[in-house]
Structure prediction request, 382 residues.
Amino acid sequence: MLLKPITIFVLLALTFSSMACQEDDSGAKAPVKDRGTPVLVAPSFDTAPLTYAEEGVLYSFTPRASGQPTPTISMSGFPAWLSWNGATLSGTPSAADVSASTLIEMRASNGVENDAVLNFSIAVAASSMGGGGGGGSGQPDIAPAITSTANWSAQENVPYQYVITATGSPAPTITVSNLPAWLSRTGDTLSGTPPPGSAGWTGTIRVEAENGVDPVAVEQFAIKVDPIPPAPTMALSGPAFVNEGTAAGGAAFRVTLYNAPNGTSATVDYYTRAGSAGPNAEYYESSGTATILPGKDFVTIGVFFKDDDADEQDKTFDLVIENPSIGSITLDTWSVTIRDDDAPSELSVARKDWQKEPASGSVNASFDVEMDKSSYYQVSVD
Ligand SMILES: [Ca+2]
Ligand SMILES: [Ca+2]
Ligand SMILES: [Ca+2]
Prediction:
């Protein structure tokens, strides 16, 4: 009472095609528009059932199903030698179970129509450990089974590999079809590296194991290739202007870390670089190593300024970062203008000394012009 191979193929193909679709209100299939946003996705099976067992040998099959929300798998109709614990169907058949077969229903549901349903039967072969079986070549025929499971995910520029293993007697022959261009087969190993630009789902890849004993074992899968994740970068930012007087308490600059994996710690070196503003005259020279702690995506660097009462032009200097511990720097220099806040000097005239009136002729009297404070500008007066 074996299930005909063609039936299994059709069921697998149906459940697979439902994976990439969701149902709209009318019940019609509609393509998933955006895999990045949460959508309701009807359940589908990621694993083909293990359809053979051997007398006295533990059978164990753990189905996997995907969907949104995560589906629940149930199993019904299985024979008495098997038990289902909600995750794994397992048991060891005895001689009495050989050749007996029942149709088992495997169902995945998550509230999104339709449930994924897969019917299969398990062919129980007589023990191959000598004893039991009469005549023939001594090796009983056992239908093929694919015991490996393909990894459904890959990433651009990262090698992918799948080693196919199959059991059965005689040893089955494996055939593979519909491989993407970047994946090739050597022996029973599929390997290759998805190139940039290959992100997305591959077509359905089909693996068959055949040894002349029905049914043929089939595994169908597709590989979702993720794009290359962006590399980490750091960028510096800060105020474009500070006021000479009010900035004396310090100004904050920030190094922001982008695209780093969660929990990353990173360091970067920094230093002040003089422009028209000089170190320790307009700002206090500063340098060191700043650390971005795990769980943070930035670190703050403080620079302090010096106030004076001289009337002067606005002046500039730079804060520079270099030597990032990870990634690269996209903006390494931040230029700051220090705005002067002092009023121009006041001029006053002071008579220098007394001049006696000369007995005859005339004499020049001299006066000083005084400034109330120093100025960086040249001052002239009419
Ligand atoms: Ca100044
Ligand atoms: Ca000032
Ligand atoms: Ca000043």
User: Anything to note?
Assistant: The domain at 5-132+139-226 is CATH 2.60.40.10 (Immunoglobulin-like). The longest helix spans residues 5-19.
